[in-house]
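Listing S7. Sequence submitted for prediction.
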Amino acid sequence: MKRSVALVAVPLLLAGCGHRAPAAAPSGASAAPSAKAAPSAKAGGDAACTGGLTGTEPGVVRITCNGTATIHVVAGGAGKDFHGGVCRSAGDVWSAAAGVIIDTTGTHGSYTGPPVDSVAVNNTSDSGKGTIQIVLGGKHYFDLGGAAMTLGAGGKSAHLDGTSDHLSDAPGTKITVDVTC
């Protein structure tokens, strides 16, 4: 159940990434540039981000590793730098994502490849709050809307601090994300 909640939330988060830009952008400043194109199933990019996958493997839903963002995550004692992430903004909504999303339900085939990691973050309608969703080392960590979030000028960076939800694989774990777009 825990993984299904996170798996459902990540694609929904990524699907909603293109609606509105960050409210934190100073007046007169433009929103952070959107990515050139949506990440495709056949994504290139940093091998540490892609896990060596191409996106055509059964069970792989999306690979987001061909952008320009760097996303540093720490969950408890584990950490990782994702290179090739994508930042998006439109209106009041800002998000960033990197890594490989796999389908544990089997709808997209049965994934039998190596363990893969991913991160997705976004702001919420509550000022200074954000959502963090991470798969790191086979564990799912998430803070769905309660993370403290600071969005940099023009949406070019973000810092989030949260606590992994009681339904995650590591309840109560401190999670930190730093994004540079």
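Caption to Listing S7: primary sequence and predicted structure tokens for the chain studied. The radius of gyration is 15 Å. Residues 1-43 have pLDDT under 50 and may be disordered.
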